[in-house]
């Protein structure tokens, strides 16, 4: 049987050779290797042809290959001069090859930086209902880790070069600049954001961040880090919806860990958000939800296995373990532990 590729009346298929495209760094490595090889050949050639010492042969090879033009260290014969011409020509070729690789690395690096910045900007512009994290220090790093674990969209605003490098290494969306700047917060998408966290290391800086954010978006939910207790009232006056003191929280947690270790573990388990098939969810009682004016028992009727842990009233008051007959009002928030599919069944009454 005649192979299909060679059958009469059929054009045979010609296999196209695959070409390997070298990266600029590979080309640079090849160029450096070629330069070392040329120098080795040159040294060996001058020592053999002209009887030069190793140092004289190396000097003559380098001056010829780099076209430095210092002249002959010793008089050369006809064979030596022909060999020198060859070294000069090959040296120029190697130098040009190395220079083109270096230029390609520089140009592509700059181009990649520009394209990377544009991709980052387009991703940030596509965000909606995200969080803006101002500050990527120790506290900001933990916030970013928690957001990433929960799949929460967020963008970091930072001006410190070291923190910027860590954020970029982590693959986070990033806006470089001062978080107290209107333009920087707009670039981070504050008009579309769901909330903002002022987590810089400076209480004064966090206060200014809160002021700037609230001036741009008075309805934006803002949480601010407060290192000192005396800074909390100022941040609240600036417009922060809530202030968090890492040191106060750490102190209370350490005391509870010593006095009631099981309680601390239970709280940590709840705060993790997901427990096998169950999740800790927050249900907002809004006008659109149609849940206002109904009792907790009525709202949770389709979620028999779910447990209502608490309710935050519109006034800010938190009720732990509320009665099932308690009436819910617009602005309240239910904290519920239950299966995700079951909680999705909560719908406005039609």
UniProtKB/TrEMBL annotation:
All residue ranges annotated as the RCK C-terminal domain in the record:
268-350
Gene Ontology BP term (one): potassium ion transport
The record describes its membrane topology as:
Multi-pass membrane protein
Q: Which Gene Ontology molecular-function terms are recorded?
A: monoatomic cation transmembrane transporter activity
Q: GO cellular component terms?
A: plasma membrane
Q: Which residues form the RCK N-terminal domain?
A: 128-246
Give the residue spans that cross the bilayer. 28-49, 82-103
Q: Does the keyword Protease apply?
A: no
What SUPFAM superfamilies does the database record attribute to this sequence?
Answer: NAD(P)-binding Rossmann-fold domains, TrkA C-terminal domain-like, Voltage-gated potassium channels
What is the protein name for this chain? Potassium channel protein
What organism does the record attribute this protein to? Answer: marine sediment metagenome
